[in-house]
Amino acid sequence: MRINIKVTPNAKVPELVKLDDLNYRVKVNARASEGKANLRLVEMLADYFDVPKSHVLILHGLNSREKVVEILI
After folding, report:
1. How far is CA 30 from the centre of its chain?
2. CATH of domain 2-71
3. What is the per-residue pLDDT for 38?
4. How confident is the model at residue 72 (pLDDT cuts 50, 70, 90)?
5. Nearest CA to 29 among 47, 50, 43?
6. 39, 15 contact by CB (below 8 A)
7. pLDDT at residue 5 in the model
8. Cβ(3)–Cβ(24) under 8 Å?
9. pTM for this model (two decimals)
């Protein structure tokens, strides 16, 4: 399943909000430097969808706040 994510890095409180079936807004409590926000995003999505972290792949937008993510279910 492919989903669109809008990420807000360095948030005080992590939050994952489902906007509709394909669009999510995620606030991560990690800085965007050195890929830390991406790693935290993968952890949060793996917990949310109850899959291993290796089943969450960022396809587009590694250096952007707008990402396309594939969840292997």
Report:
1. 12
2. 3.30.1200.10
3. 98
4. very high
5. 43
6. no
7. 98
8. yes
9. 0.96
Contact, 2 vs 66, CB < 8 A?
no
Domain limits, the chain: 2-71
Burial of 3 (0-12, 13-18, 19+ CB in 10 A): middle
The full DSSP string for 2-65 is EEEEEEE-S-SS-EEEE-SSSEEEEE-SS-SGGGHHHHHHHHHHHHHHT--GGGEEEEE-TTSS
Would you state the structure tokens that stand for residue 25, as one six-digit string?
């807004």
How confident is the model over 23-62, as pLDDT tens digits? Answer: 999 999 999 999 999 999 999 999 999 999 999 999 999 9
